[in-house]
Amino acid sequence: MPALCPFPGSTRRLVSVASTVVMVVSLQGAFSSALTPFHNRAFAQSTPVITPTAGPAPAASSTPEAGSTSVKEKAEPTTAEVLEQQNKKFQSLESFARVLGLLETSYVEESAVQSEALIERALKGMVASLDPHTTYLPASQLRDLTNDTSGKFGGIGVILQQQDTKLEVVEVLENSPAARGGIIGGDIIFAVDGLEVNQKNMDEVLNRMRGLPGSSVTLELVAPSDAAKWEAGKKPGRTRKVNVTREVIRTSSVTHARLSPGYAYVKVSVFQEDVSEQVDKALRLYEAENGGKLDGLILDLRGNPGGLLDQAVRLSDLFLDSGIIVSTIGRDRAKQEVEYATKRNTHPYMPLVVLVNEGSASASEIVAGALQDHNRALVVGSTSFGKGSVQSIVQLPNGAGLKMTIARYYTPKGRSIQAKGIVPDIPIPTAPAGSMASTGSNAAAKDSITPTLAPSRGERNPRKEADLEGHIDAADLDAVKGGAAARDGFSAELEKWPSGLRSDNQLRIAYTYLRSWARFSAPRTLPGR
After folding, report:
1. Active-site hit among 295, 310, 373, 504
2. pLDDT digits (tens, 9 = 90+) for 491-511
3. Which of the chain's termini has less CB crowding within 10 Å, N or C?
């Protein structure tokens, strides 16, 4: 693939989720309903233009589906046919110019037919019938999008997803104005500063959510529990109002923690410009603490909408020393661009678990698919979003931009995940840890990192030794010999985790698999020998 070109006049490839308007409120603000296709958070370089690098290849459209074999070659058009096609195109352009001129000079309401507004609506309409990821970006939207990858913007700190006429809060950024105001994931925004949300005024709604740091905005919200009862086209039965003060939001796309000696957790929330460098730095930190090599790593890609393709490739390359990472095919099916892993920056081998869910899209799926196809990682969680296309953003002469789908991408084994997603090796429900635990009197179950499963029929909350009053305590043999009281090792480790991770059911279960992996892959030694 072409090298990155982070300067004007170039384009940069993007692979970001679909069906989600990313509105870290403010940064991505005036997103039109056409922007539904992706969590914009990971798209823009600090430059107005973006280039075929992390996602799309300068081509745009179909590609051979899995199993297809040959493609019929079209006969070259004759000179007469070419001239006829060009003539029709010019006639259409002439008609467009004439309609524009007539409206400007003769329409009854002069204020309703300003040329700039008319042309912008026409451009939006031109791409409206194409795939949901292809859209026209007015200059203001392109600027907002461009600011995103810097990791700093003004707003209230939420990520939104448009679903028909509803605007749902997908994620609330930690320690953001929205979080402090009590806004939670799953809330539906009914109105912003009195303006009720509908499909026609989505741009204005999103614009109202943005504003200068220090200014306030009032949101009228429908709680997740009430949203299911809310019929389309009708007013919700119950809403709540939240007044939030906007501020500059600073985000880091990578967070990490040490789960226990030798075991690390790294979460990538979006593929911004420096993701691979941040992950590389975190890994080196934990490797240094553990004698140069980790015993296990959990890479969390849940809720990651995607972003820059080159960062997805570079992140995968940290764990792979050879082979294909991803391939893309655009309009010309005979041309395939392939990204390969290299040995240069690969980290020492460690057992690796990758967490995904329905919010993991595009660039996230590239990483998960590459590591899964190479048998380099165990993919755990729920089936991912399923966005297997690449977009490129090109700046236009009027300062606006065109984001268009130019290619499909494929995993190393040639799998297309478009509308399918990455299916995890081990499916795990997203229910909070402890929510399916026995309701018996054994309080230790709440602290244990061991996964709890719902009882089968006929075995509802069976009583165990620990539930019997007066049962004696016990300790492992090592603890007895050492004369120390025994505590569940997992429980002790869990208490040292950051508080936000302790109730994460999928993470806790992924950690148990990771620990077991190390145990089963170690040389067997029989007791007493």
Report:
1. 373
2. 678 888 887 788 888 998 898
3. C
